[in-house]
Amino acid sequence: MLNFCWFSILFVFLLLPASGMAADPLASWKPAFDPTQAEYTYLLSSVGHPAIAGVSVGYQIRDRVWAESKGQLYVDYRPISQLGGEKDVLQKLKMGAIQGMLCSSVAAPNVSPRLGLVNLPFLIDSFAKLETFRKNKTLFAEYGEQAARKGIKVVDFTGYGGYGWATTSPVRSLDEAKAQVFRIAQAPVNIDLYRAWGLQFTVMPWPDVPQALQTGVISGLDHTPIVCNISKKFSVAKNFTRINYAQGLYIHLMNKRWLSSLPIDLQKLLVRIIEEESTKARALTEQQQNKEIAEATAAGVVFLDLAQTDLAELKNLALPVVKKWGEKVGQDYLSRVRSALPN
Hints:
- α8 links the parallel β6 and β7.
- The protein is globular, with a radius of gyration of 20 Å.
- It is 46% helix and 18% strand.
- By secondary structure, the protein is of the alpha/beta class.
- Mean pLDDT is 91; it is low at 1-21.
- The chain has helices at residues 4-15, 53-68, 86-95, 127-135, 137-143, 145-149, 174-178, 188-197, 209-215, 225-230, 256-261, 264-298, 308-317, 319-329, 331-340; strands at residues 40-46, 73-78, 100-104, 152-162, 164-167, 181-184, 200-203, 220-223, 239-242, 247-255, 302-305.
- Strands 7-6-8-5-9-11 form a six-stranded mixed β-sheet, with helices on both faces. A five-stranded mixed β-sheet has the order 2-1-3-10-4, sandwiched between helices.
């Protein structure tokens, strides 16, 4: 599966000063208050780096919860994999050793297949559709039902942008895509999708990507403009083909038993603030994607679109994948989601 732990470690090294002396990459995000007197602590993990708006939301949640709970509840937010990779953190979350997690949408199906809904190709493939889905209270509640039965509450989600292809040579057509070797996430949906598309791909750990791009072992990445620009992948892969087949998410998961142990007023306060700040972060994510695209374009990255006929072919080839995973998600649920989304 895609492991943002490795992206985060790489990002930390990029932030070190030229002298080589260690610097605290989270220094500017330290709390402006003393949390040691808090009566309750919410330990919240993320593998992402807070340079991404959908990750930095944890700090906004932390500060608001502290202020509005009058210091009763401290959100101890630990991004950039301080508490481990996603697989390990998910186990800790289930056991209650960690109370919350911003889980990537790629890893989330390990909690429940229904959380893989957002990975299905060309379903929730725009910011507008994502927001429509989130605002539908019935559909969103059902989205988290399977996880809830396992003791995990799906509170909300933020994001990291729309998926496409970052490549070392321009890809304007499906034939040109077939000449590429893509690095994709270690996730069953993604693997099934690339097989259905008939594209060359490899599953590769994130720290191996820079050298693989430099040496030509791979020539493309399946990822988002935000991550590609922030992690400097555009320095080698100077082309990006906008496919927008899915939105990358950080899904806010919480241990239900821990939540129920809080006083009712703090339960409501925490969930409300998470929802409000996540809504803000999703809007900021769309703005950040536009900003990163503009900066990358100014630096010489070329953004491309597939011909409509080729895009239609990708959608057609993806239908068996949607059918297979629709059975895991629930066909009736999938149909109702599709009907609720704008065309």
